[in-house]
Design a protein that fits this description.
Blueprint (H helix, E strand, L loop, with lengths): L14 E5 L10 H9 L3 H12 L5 H10 L5 H11 L6 H10 L4 E8 H12 L7 E10 L11 E4 L11 H8 L8 E6 L5 H4 L4 E5 L3 H9 L3 E4 L2 H13 L4 H36 L4 H4 L9 E12 L14 E3 L12 E11 L9 E7 L21 E4 L3 E6 L11 E8 L10 E3 L15 E7 L17 E7 L27 H16 L3 E5 L11 H14 L4 E4 L11 H9 L19 E6 L7 E7 L20 H19 L6 E5 L13 E3 L15 H7 L4 E4 L8 E5 L5 E7 L17 E8 L4 E8 L8 E8 L2 E2 L9
Parallel strand pairs: 1-2, 1-5, 2-3, 5-6, 6-7, 17-18, 18-19, 21-22, 22-24, 24-26
Antiparallel strand pairs: 3-4, 8-10, 9-10, 11-13, 12-13, 14-16, 15-16, 17-27, 20-21, 23-25, 25-26, 27-28, 28-29, 29-30
Helix pairs in contact: 2-3, 5-10, 13-14
């Protein structure tokens, strides 16, 4: 190709300046701004960039995914960018100089021409002069829509390359010109999309602090670093005037970067040396040490004991002796002692408050004898940390006075008490001691166990449930676990002995059943629909509640919980129970709005597959309370209150527009504990077992109607342990309007004495590809491999009536 046929050669320039646009000419990246503020957000965008660098995905795929998450009309996107994107303050000076000195500017961008043109026109106050060229991607209609409507546009790539726009293609014809006519080719850029172009130029201006600098050094691409366009202008002027050569600029740039790297490595080495010395010998002042990453800013435990006091002695009081001591407010005898109570107390201090005589607790064990030392030194001399100190109740402490111990992950930072031979602790960073405290009159139920937390507790993020890559999502409904403090007592077990000669213990048998199904069914989410805690047998409800979720936490399964009429009959009320659940790993449970009746009125959004931020499923969870507030008029159980119905309807209506943006089918469902009055309608079709009279509220507050009005496909409850049917409600035109299901009772600590009832668990299996929902149950005994009463309740995103017109 001759020079005269190339558009940027028509004025015979000595230099052609190619440049990226976003983050190079501008201070912000316009595409990043749209994604972060109108699309799926900065976190997912940054992860996409990382995946590109690690060759997990092409730039083309990542960039399209970014922009596809922006549904705002295109003209509104431009308006947003005009208000928020700023020009490099020195670019205008370069723009004017280049025009006067015959230096064409060619903008090569992964962005879109209409956006770049609009921004330049805004920056310059007019359309760019003809010495500035724009070569970029474009925009096109999505599915024939107007681009200025919601979700109506998409990026149109410039070429078929992995970049979507291979910038090198625009430069190569100029790089291939004969030396006698070839101009000097310069390029300015900052990111991943500039990699292909960087190789084709004589000199690259790489923005300081960006990935492009490291890449150029590895690939030996000639470059110099710039912070803004003032340095680009100065260097380009010197090259044009002949004061410096491109080769010299590149060499100086490389040397500057390498010197900076060497200085940084030396500084890091010195920092690591100082930190290492400080960790061992605490050489830094406290004011400096306190800001080091290794420093633990919280409190560390310095002592643990048991305080016993007598009901008979008026001068005996179980209260800490000083403000540094904390008491675990749980009587170790669970209020069963005739004459005395006992409490675990522990002392905690901040590092800066530690005295020379203070020691940090590194380990705690329960034993009648002195625990074995962690190491047996060859010289027979034991280190201070190997010595165990006795405390009441069989507690042994291993402590140290070493100054760096408070920063160690070994240091104990919190102490708690749980009860029962099967006590577990699902909290992040906590561990239960294997041996119970050695107390007089100890029984299995009264086995008090210490749980400890070490070091700085790990931060746990709320999980985000998501449809899997195959378009599937499975919910396991656990209803009426009825767990106790301790092993619990079996009620109506079928069979009485699962293993001949082995006594039925309620909680172990319940949890073994749940564990088996978790491993076989591998649900994506678990919904606990009330009566996790059997309040009557849970003198420490926290211990029972922990057992209900430990299996889920261990398997990293997200879970949501609501309460039944028995959960708060122990020593904790609903608010206290929910406060515990909200802070546990993998929990998406929430207390919900304070102005709405009850505790646990909230939604869980299950996002669509891939990286979309759109919801595919919405779960509405509501507190159905406990017992009737008006026994004289409405005997039995409480009902969904008007404030809850208002909250539900307002929430559902506010989400409708957002859900319509989801390009696949969106579905809604609800979970409660106590069944609705409509569950006892004998003329409705049902599938499954109706083995006891539904104990629905005597007062009908109209929640079923609200569910139908807002398009809820099905609602599922618990409460009546031996009912496990799904009932179909129809509207006035005899069309299916709502499925109403029971989960079936799971726990052996609750009743089950009807028709040889076998404990069971209900599953809901969603196929988002076809908009289909299948539901079935799994049994603890008998047909343990079968999917019992499997039925399709939703198909094509719509309610499905049952084909067989008979009740079971």
């Amino acid at each position: 190709m001759s020079a005269s046929s190339l558009p940027y050669m028509k004025t015979n320039p000595k230099i052609i300046f190619f440049t990226d646009f976003d983050g190079t000419v501008t201070l912000q990246d316009s595409n990043d701004y749209l994604t972060d503020n109108l699309g799926y957000g900065g976190e997912k965008r940054r992860q996409g960039n990382l995946d590109v660098r690690e060759d997990k995905i092409s730039f083309r795929e990542s960039f399209r995914d970014m922009l596809d998450s922006v549904k705002t009309p295109f003209n509104e996107c431009i308006e947003t960018l005009l208000k928020n994107i700023k020009l490099d303050p020195h670019f205008m000076e370069f723009y004017n100089w280049s025009k006067e000195n015959n230096v064409p500017i060619v903008v090569l961008s992964s962005g879109m021409v209409p956006i770049i043109s609009a921004l330049f026109e805004s920056f310059l106050g007019q359309k760019p002069d003809d010495h500035l060229y724009i070569v970029a991607n474009d925009v096109e209609s999505r599915d024939g829509k107007d681009i200025n409507t919601e979700g109506g546009w998409q990026i149109k790539y410039h070429d078929e390359s992995d970049f979507g726009h291979d910038k090198s293609l625009e430069i190569k014809p100029y790089a291939a010109l004969p030396d006698n006519v070839r101009p000097t080719l310069l390029y300015a850029g900052d990111g991943v999309s500039d990699l292909s172009a960087a190789r084709e130029t004589d000199l690259l201006f790489a923005k300081k602090g960006r990935d492009l600098v490291a890449w150029c050094e590895r690939k030996t691409v000639p470059f110099t670093v710039f912070e803004d366009w003032s340095s680009i202008l100065a260097t380009t002027q010197d090259i044009l005037s002949g004061k410096v050569t491109v080769k010299k600029v590149a060499q100086e740039g490389l040397e500057t970067v390498r010197a900076g790297i060497q200085l940084a490595i030396f500084a890091v080495f010195i920092l690591l040396l100082v930190v290492t010395l400080d960790n061992r010998f605490r050489v830094l002042p406290a004011s400096i040490h306190g800001h080091l990453p290794s420093h633990y800013h919280g409190l560390v435990v310095t002592d643990v004991t048991i305080k016993t006091c007598s009901y008979i002695n008026p001068f005996s009081a179980c209260k800490p002796d000083s403000h540094a001591w904390t008491q675990v407010e749980k009587d170790l005898y669970l209020r069963t002692g005739w004459t005395s109570t006992a409490f675990v107390q522990f002392e905690r201090k901040k590092e800066e408050d530690l005295l020379p005589t203070d020691k940090v607790v590194l380990d705690l064990k329960i034993s009648r004898l002195v625990p074995e030392s962690i190491d047996d030194p060859k010289d027979g001399k034991k280190d201070e940390e190997d010595k165990w100190e006795p405390r009441p109740g069989g507690i042994w402490l291993r402590r140290t006075a070493k100054r760096h111990a408070s920063d160690s992950q070994k240091a104990i930072t919190l102490v708690d008490v749980l009860f029962g031979a099967d006590a577990v602790d699902p909290r992040a960073g906590w561990e239960v001691r294997d041996t119970p405290l050695l107390l007089d009159g100890r029984t299995e139920e009264l086995e008090a166990r210490i749980s400890i937390q070490r070091g700085d507790p790990p931060k746990t993020k709320k999980p985000v449930p998501r449809i899997n890559e195959h378009g599937r999502f499975k919910i396991m409904q656990l209803s009426d676990l009825h767990l106790s403090t301790g092993l619990g007592v079996c009620r109506d077990p079928i069979p009485a002995e699962l293993v001949p000669g082995q006594k039925c213990e309620a909680d172990p048998r319940t949890l073994e059943f749940v564990e088996r199904l978790l491993d076989e069914e591998k649900p994506d989410m678990v919904v606990l629909t009330g009566d996790q805690v059997n309040g009557e047998t849970s003198k420490d409800a926290q211990s029972a509640l922990f057992k209900s979720v430990k299996l889920l936490v261990d398997r990293k399964i997200p879970y949501a919980a609501i309460f039944g009429n028995h959960d708060d009959e122990g020593n904790l009320n609903r608010s206290e129970l929910m406060a515990i659940l909200e802070d546990l790993p993998y929990s998406v449970s929430s207390a919900g709005p304070e102005e709405v009746d009850g505790v646990g009125n909230y939604i869980v959004e299950v996002l669509g597959r891939g990286s979309t931020t759109h919801s595919a499923l919405t779960l509405y969870l509501l507190d159905s309370h406990s017992y009737s507030p008006d026994e004289r008029q409405f005997r039995g159980y409480d009902w969904i209150k008007p404030s809850q119905i208002r909250w539900f309807k307002n929430t559902a209506q506010s989400l409708k527009r957002k859900h319509h943006e989801y390009t696949y089918m969106h579905m809604d469902m609800a979970f409660i504990h106590i069944p609705l009055p409509e569950y006892r309608e004998p003329n409705n079709f049902y599938h499954g077992n109706w083995d006891e009279a539904p104990t629905a509220p005597g007062f009908n507050s109209g929640f079923k109607d609200a569910l139908e009005e807002e398009g809820i496909l099905f609602v599922s409850c618990g409460h009546d342990h031996v009912n496990d049917y799904c009932m179909l409600n129809k509207d006035k035109d005899e069309k299916p309007s709502l499925w109403m299901c029971y989960g079936g009772g799971v726990g052996f600590g609750g009743y089950g004495g009807y028709k040889d009832y076998v404990r069971r668990v209900r599953f809901f299996d969603f196929d988002m590809n076809s908009g289909r929902v299948m539901t079935y149950k799994r049994l603890e005994y008998g047909e343990t491999e079968a999917k019992i009463d499997e039925q399709m309740i939703v198909d094509g995103g719509a309610l499905k009536g049952f084909i067989e017109n008979k009740n079971n």
